[in-house]
Fold Cytochrome P450.
Amino acid sequence: MSQDHGKKTLSYPIPNDAPLEPPAEWARLRRQCPVARVELPSGDEASLLTRYDDVKQVLADPRFTRLLNADDAARLSADDSGGLFSSEMAQVIPDSGEGHQRWRRLVGKWFTAKRMAALRPVMEEMADQLIDDMVKLGRPADLKASLGFPLPVYVICDLLGVPAADRDRFAYWSDTMLNLTKFAKVEIDAAQAEFAQYMSEHVAAKREQPGEDLISELIRSADADGGGLSDVELLVTGIALLVAGHETTANMIGKMVGMLLADRTRWERLLADRSLVRTAVEESLRFDANSGFGLPRYLREETEVGGTVLPRGTTVICSMAAANRDESVFDGADEMDLSRSPNPHLSFGSGAHSCLGQALARTELQVVLEVLLRRLPTLELAVPVDELPKVDGLVVGGLREVPVRW
């Protein structure tokens, strides 16, 4: 790889051995080459954005679409499955315009901060139960497997009205859809087909016998105003919420605890002042250097970004994690400040496509932190920070395990 990355192509994702630290390349790219040519795992080229203002501009600009199935769009992975981003399912939910707004309006009613606050006691009970099980098995324990991974599945299954007994199948389907390198195309296709079949039967069952869950609510709101979601839209909505809401939050729980225990003065500070939980969660989201692939966008027409003219047909990768370390926006961007406020990080995106489930994710992260501080104040990492094993190939990035003791 040439040292002159301004002109030559950089391999992407940028190799990085440190589990919790950013690649040194980010700061250099923000400074010298904010719109960098990169080569994706497929061998195709894309443009990588690392500055806050550029990433925010692209995420809010409707000319940059999330559909990567155009003939000249870059393929993300070698087998051209593209995982979640270029599947047929990604095209069912409208990408922009009135159709997209209608979908967000119907589904978004469920994801208000008020609704999430009502779910809090249920989440706390789940977290307490999972910690009970972890403590019974003894230490050291893997916090990600014991708490980080199961909790979001329990919560999403609860939201969708799916039996908790099916959560292991959900976890596998979610993993295949978000992994660019771990599974062969045949496995990804099979998982997507099984998942679609399951959700199709689930939607049909909810039409017959509605409950108090999100799918039933969407069916009811459709009947009420006649402008609801079709069965296929309901099916895709269920799949999208599980995939988006499970793997990302499971990984973030592990990374957040890892970051807070990596320098134990952070944990001590939270033990001394529980009112910092909310800002500590926001700062963990901003500080997360291992957030995975970033958001790919396809450009329908020529546009200028960061002083660079991008031709029509360009695929852009927005690195929100690199943008969240931009010194021009965050004072002491490379310091983890648990009381940082305001904190306008881009971890949930920006604009019309900002993460629909961000109130849910925030609530889960806050609950996990509150329950851990209360139940396991002596919690610490069971391995040195640089030995935390990273996940490879996953779109959302993360730690494979978070070994802890108490």
